[in-house]
Design brief:
Elements (H helix, E strand, L loop, with lengths): L20 H6 L7 H16 L5 H5 L2 H12 L5 H18 L4 E12 L9 E9 L5 E18 L4 E10 L7 H7 L13 H14 L5 E5 L6 H10 L2 E5 L5 E2 L4 E2 H5 L6 E8 L5 E15 L12 E10 L10 E6 L6 H12 L2 H13 L10 H27 L11 H10 L13 H11 L13 H22 L5
Parallel strand pairs: 1-5, 5-6
Antiparallel strand pairs: 1-3, 2-3, 3-4, 6-12, 7-8, 9-10, 10-11, 11-12
InterPro entries: RNaseH-like_sf (IPR012337), TN5-like_N_sf (IPR038215), Tn5_transposase (IPR054836), Tn5p-like (IPR047768), Transposase_11 (IPR002559), Transposase_Tn5-like_C (IPR014737), Transposase_Tn5-like_N (IPR014735)
Protein name: IS4 family transposase
GO molecular function, one term: transposase activity
């Protein structure tokens, strides 16, 4: 059984009349009032049923939309309250899983068009072209930043969100100016936006425990010396793409010069697609070496040297038509064999899952289309969308790794019946045809997936469209079964 595949039990507190996954994700949530709990569950079900719809469209009428706006604007509700139940459910899925758990971290921006930036905040200022006199015009981007930690299995099945941080640039105003007069290594990590990487790591560790099973995976933006120190302090693990060439050994050479002398441990052959979608094959040379890493000069009094493994992956004989594949990774784990090196490469490749997660938030849930007027309300809405985006991503991956699972793990009996009526198949009435993979393909057909023999498995985009269409069809189905008189 895949962690998280069990059907959610009924929950009177959430007002769930049927088995509903939203009930399980909010069951352990703690709100100031039971009515807030019930309102949150109802709003989550409505938004999940109409993925990509506006709040009035998802709620169906003015009374429901007004109740949703009041909930999102309630001063006694914040994103931690909304995600508390999901965090608890994620912890249980992690405990039920086996093997290592990868914690993927990344940041994304949400931009909104507003007449004033005071209510929401500013993310950046960009050039928006030249005016009639040739001068550059500055355009202020209004919005929020979201930093997320997502737990996935080694096979890529998402177990849930473990930490979330929402902020605006106003909180760190003046840091960039300070770096112009002070060496940036002299600015404490607590005063930088990069502290989010440490905060999410601590929050995930506090939630999940089991530090020896967790591997924190992130891109080059997280290449921060303080983060490596915290990983070792907490007894957990990391695989992080590096961009800094630090001093190593006795300080007489850098990591790059040391790795230039490292021998090739072996080759790893991969298959991927280029920008045009064509399949290409690449041979990757693997080099690995344990190094004694020294802290930056401005941090040597605060942080100790570290012993880490440097793993370099470079493409052999790359074509001139594209950039060569090159990854420079840092991990606390040993890399003694080619197999161990490929394992770490595979773990870092899983980082792309959180990019898909953020794509679902923006393109599927259409979080940037919201017309809410304050940062607090948008943050509450983003928390709800995080739960929905996780569920869509889970559905996309679970049927690939465990296709023989019963469809009731993801769909209610009514939804299964409707899919059978809409998209009958020769195997639908046979026991071996009643699988999660079968019904995910049917759901994808509603979203526009053709389902041809040579087509790849359905992705998140067609599944969120299929879920939205299925919810509309079920509404019409209920209306036909229970017509109103008068």
């Amino acid at each position: 059984m895949v962690p998280g595949l069990q059907t959610a039990p009924d929950s009177e507190a959430c007002g769930c009349l049927n088995q509903d996954w939203t009930g399980a994700e909010l069951e352990a949530a703690t709100f100031a009032d039971v009515r807030l709990h019930r309102r949150c569950a109802g709003l989550l079900r409505q938004l999940a049923a109409g993925v990509g719809s506006s709040i009035p469209q998802a709620c169906g009428n003015w009374a429901g939309a007004k109740a949703a706006y009041r909930f999102l604007a309630n001063g006694r509700v914040d994103e931690a309250d909304i995600l508390g139940g999901h965090f608890a459910a994620t912890r249980e899925r992690v405990r039920a899983s086996s093997g290592m758990v990868l914690l993927l971290q990344d940041t994304t921006e949400f931009t909104y068009q507003r007449a004033s930036t005071t209510a929401i905040g500013v993310t950046n200022r960009v050039n928006s072209g030249r005016d009639a006199e040739g001068r550059w015009r500055q355009h202020t981007l209004c919005g929020l930043l979201l930093h997320t930690s997502l737990a996935v299995t080694e096979q890529g099945v998402p177990l849930g969100v473990t930490a979330v941080k929402v902020w605006t640039r106003a909180k760190f105003r003046g840091t960039a100016a300070l770096k112009r007069v002070v060496n940036h290594t002299g600015v404490a990590i607590e005063g930088k936006e990069s502290v989010r990487w440490l905060d999410n790591l601590r929050q995930s560790m506090d939630l999940l425990g089991e530090p020896e099973r967790l591997v924190h995976v992130a891109d080059r933006e997280s290449d921060i010396y303080e983060l490596f120190c915290l990983v070792l302090e907490l007894g957990t693990h990391c695989v992080i793409r590096t961009c800094n060439d630090r001093l190593a050994g006795d300080g007489g050479h850098t990591v790059a010069s040391g790795m230039a002398e490292a021998r090739v441990r072996g080759l790893h052959h991969v298959e991927l697609r280029d920008a045009q979608g064509e399949v290409i094959h690449a041979a990757l040379e693997i080099r690995a070496r344990r190094v004694h890493l020294l802290p930056p000069i401005g941090k040597q009094k605060r942080y100790p040297p570290l012993d880490l493994t440097v793993l370099h992956v470079t493409e052999r004989n790359p074509p001139r038509s594209r950039k060569p594949i090159e990854w420079k990774l840092l991990t606390d784990l040993p890399v003694r064999t080619r197999r161990e090196a490929i394992e770490k490469i595979h773990w870092y490749a899983m980082r792309w899952k959180i990019e898909i997660f953020h794509k679902i938030l923006k393109s599927g849930c259409r979080a940037e289309d919201s017309r809410l007027r304050s940062a607090e309300r948008i943050a509450n809405l983003l928390a709800l969308f995080c739960i929905i985006a996780w569920r869509i991503l889970w559905l996309t991956q679970a049927h690939r790794t465990h296709p023989e699972t019963a469809p009731q793990a993801a769909l209610r009996d009514r939804e299964i019946l409707i899919l059978d009526r809409l998209i009958p198949s020769a195997q639908a009435d046979e026991p071996q045809g009643k699988t999660l993979a079968t019904y995910v393909r049917k759901l994808a057909r509603l979203g526009g997936h053709l389902g041809r023999s040579h087509d790849p498995p359905p992705g998140a985009m067609v599944l969120w469209r299929g879920l939205s269409r299925l919810a509309d069809i079920e509404l019409g189905w209920d209306a036909a079964e229970h017509p109103r008189c008068g």
